[in-house]
Write a structure and sequence with these properties.
With about 325 residues, the protein is of the alpha/beta class. The protein binds nicotinamide-adenine-dinucleotide.
């Protein structure tokens, strides 16, 4: 550790999010940021002025100079770009969603699997400090998950329906917590600002009977990113925006270190306690990129794989199919 050669990396797409990738990559000692490529000359100029990072004139010259890239371009460009990167034999970190369609996501996951390359998808909410704190409290076989992800209108992300832009975060979180196949999906949605859905609700039922009820909107007046779940003897509320977690737990023996409420039930006494675990602050994008580095340098299996990224897109597409059925 610490003595090996840093991974030489480039960024493709230096827009709103690409800028944060550049900042994080400059801070991570395991990476050496070689440069970036963006199709917009105005954006190239802005980034050149702000950061000490060379720009490349085209993708192929950037690819020749690096071992790995971050793809941070609009979703509809992901497939072609990622395929080019895989063909050039470079490791890829790609922003979520992997692509906009299940068949192209599957093709990328399959193409990557035939190489020894590392591929990771930027499902950054898995690294959200509140979610990490909740996981440390023990998320274990939730039977019901409810998520609300509401955002004010923003023209960025409008290239894909709200399911692919926002709900995909919760789809990935749910898939990471539920160890079962999807049984069926019910969904409703409407387009308000554009033709594709801007508000959507989906109820996903898994084969093990777990239910996930997801709501996403990108034409909301206020922001909200909350996920609640319950599992045997425990309820959790996770606030991704304010980085807060609340846990309510049922005990069969009285805990000594918590304030409890006693329940005298016919079959014995139980105790309920509420806890707000400390949420350790960290930069989630930096964290996921550090894991990407660890996967390249030390073969770590952590991080969201292309396989998992493809599965999230497949479920998202199942939701969109249900919405289209109602539109007919
Ligand atoms: P953006 O429009 O701000 O930036 C995209 C940049 O890519 C622009 O500068 C554009 O000029 C450039 N670009 C477009 N086509 C290109 C190409 N072929 N080659 C090189 N550069 C190209 O968009 P954004 O908000 O930064 O989103 C980019 C990606 O990040 C999307 O896939 C989006 O879903 C994802 N995203 C993820 C999160 C998250 O929470 N993880 C948040 C926002 C966006």
């Amino acid at each position: 550790m610490g003595h090996e050669k840093p991974v030489e990396i480039g960024v493709i797409g230096a827009g709103h999010l690409g800028r944060y990738h550049i900042e994080c990559l400059q801070r991570i000692e395991g990476f050496s940021l070689i440069g970036f490529f963006d199709v917009d000359p105005l954006r190239v100029k802005e980034i050149n002025e702000k950061y000490d990072v060379p720009s490349f004139d085209d993708i192929s010259s950037l690819l020749k100079a690096v071992d790995a890239v971050c793809i941070v371009t609009p979703t509809i460009t992901h497939f072609d770009l990622a395929l080019e990167v895989i063909k050039a034999g470079k490791h890829i970190f790609i922003e979520k969603p992997l692509t906009d369609l299940p068949d192209t996501s599957r093709k990328l996951a399959d193409a990557l699997a035939t190489t020894g390359l590392v591929g990771r998808v930027g499902h950054v909410e898995r690294y959200n400090p509140a979610f990490v704190a909740a996981q440390n409290m023990g998320i274990d076989k939730p039977v019901f998950i409810e998520a609300h992800r509401l955002a004010p209108f923003n023209v960025r992300g409008m290239d894909v329906p709200v399911i692919m832009d926002l709900m995909i975060h919760d789809i990935d979180l749910v898939l990471s917590m539920v160890d079962s196949e999807v049984d069926h999906i019910e969904a409703n949605g409407v387009g308000v600002a554009g033709k594709s859905a801007d508000i959507c609700n989906a109820r996903i039922t898994f084969k093990n009977d777990t239910v996930a009820n997801l709501t996403a909107s990108r034409i909301s007046l206020k922001q909200m990113r909350k996920l609640r779940l319950f599992q045997r003897d425990q309820y959790m509320a996770i606030d991704f925006l304010n980085h807060e977690v609340q846990v309510v737990k049922l005990f069969h023996a009285e805990p000594t270190d918590m304030l409890t409420m006693q329940l005298d039930l016919p079959d014995g006494t139980r105790w309920i306690a509420a806890d707000n675990p400390t949420v350790e602050k960290h930069n989630a994008i930096e964290q996921e990129l550090r894991e990407f580095n660890d996967a390249i340098q030390h073969n770590s299996q952590k991080g969201v794989t292309f396989e998992q990224g493809a599965r999230a897109v497949e479920v998202a597409s199942g939701i969109m199919e249900q919405i289209m059925k109602h539109e007919k």
